[in-house]
Amino acid sequence: MKFLRFWFPVLFYSGIIFYVSSWPNLQAPLGEFDFDKIFHLLEYIPYGFLVARALTAGQLPQNRLFLWNVVLLSLLYALSDEFHQSFVIGRESSLIDVWADTLGGMLGGWVYMEFEKRKSKTLADGKRL
To answer: pTM for this structure?
Structure first.
């Protein structure tokens, strides 16, 4: 049951990413800046947050090594996502997208770590959340 509680959200969100990646001919708005990379980064922040939550089972991370595990899982899923996109009509895969996805996953993991640290400190001080 604990597995479902912590890993189901990761699997569900992974499915959402896969579904969006399956849309043919999806184009980011054009402009002077490549907003596509920002979308990739933002898409993977929740992914990294959920992976960090699952890896720590909702507890305060005991060391920073867990963040590297978040980065590794984000990287592996980003690689598989870009591989999948290479088969979708009108889509292309890019290692720069993998980089943006991985960075987003890392940021999500960091946000989770900070959230848990503050929550833990608040509870230790006897304050309510």
So the answer is: 0.87
